[in-house]
Specification:
The structure is a homodimer.
Chain A (H helix, E strand, L loop, with lengths): L7 H11 L4 H9 L2 H4 L4 H13 L3 E6 L7 E6 L1 H12 L8 H14 L1 H28 L8 H26 L12
Antiparallel strand pairs in A: 1-2
The first copy, chain A, binds a DNA duplex through helix 4.
Chain lengths: 186, 186
Amino acid sequence: MSVGFMSFRQFILGLLRQQPMSGYDIKRLFEILTWLVGGPSLSSIYTNLHALLKNGLVSVEVVRQQNRPWRKVYSITEAGEQTLQESANQPVASQVSLRAFLMRLIVARSFSEERLICHLQQRRVQVAAQLAALKETARAQNEKTDFKRLALDYGFAMGNSELAWLDNTVNRLSKKPLPMEVVRGN
Amino acid sequence: MSVGFMSFRQFILGLLRQQPMSGYDIKRLFEILTWLVGGPSLSSIYTNLHALLKNGLVSVEVVRQQNRPWRKVYSITEAGEQTLQESANQPVASQVSLRAFLMRLIVARSFSEERLICHLQQRRVQVAAQLAALKETARAQNEKTDFKRLALDYGFAMGNSELAWLDNTVNRLSKKPLPMEVVRGN
DNA sequence: CCCGCCATGTAACACGTTACATGATTTT
DNA sequence: AAAATCATGTAACGTGTTACATGGCGGG
């Protein structure tokens, strides 16, 4: 499934902004988050790198290694920087999946601490809203045999955890408690 | 992005097994979980329903409503039941994203409590393994300025929460089937 | 009367996957 | 000598998105 405003292509570009890498490196990077957000196949990564290269958003350099096969290390170009800037400046859609959030999170970090915090706060508002909606849904159909029950329960647990993490992280990063009275928890 | 063994198509079929619904109903169902796993577009839902119908896995009935437009309510057929059974019996892949897990969770529930619990336990093993891998990664690259830091941190938080929820849920389900309190807010 | 929600659908396109293909190097 | 890991790539296919298109019905 596409995530619209933040595709894997964009994300890969964001990763290259932080440090030059090969396709294989990127694959290993994705692996650590696979269980959370899934990840593109290796083929897809290479294809995206080719496309970025063709569009002049990245450049390549073949690196010969000792005791290992050669690698193609990609770096972001000026044009790539600009493109990334633009896409990062776009406002976040109201319905953002966890995957899209995480990808933007990582990219946002490379720009500035302010943007990062802003991003976390936006996510906080959205998760809080979703939790409220979830609560409403649960209340509306409180029949015990409902098949959505477990999914709702799971949603609550994860949502509350994420909310707590967001608060915690924002606080830690901004080093001073922010006044937040957004709807929270039960 | 596809999830391989558990596509939206399969999931929609699973939903219809639990109760007949229209495409629009399904869309609203997905909405409550959008922030977690994303969801297919309305178009995609309709297209999938058409495909399921063409394959004889579901049947339709046009329902005329008062004060509202007519709806097409889909129900699962015998053939659909069988197909779903088979796909549900397939072993879970080792690297399962949260989305795939949630979809299987909901479908598994409609089969039997045993299968549900089994599914939860499988997920537990996988999340635990991922957390261990995450910890290893974090230890390996403990530079404080690393750009993966935040993502790793997020992964820890979510992983630990999910682990706790899984344990809690498995316990609750295998002990006694008493009413579960859904809302467990902060 | 227009807007928004309900409700369905088609077609062009973008994106990602699986299968296939190659080859160096290290480990067992 | 075989298997695993590192490392890259192509092509066919499946699936999902966006844009487009239609229409009933209710409320402001």
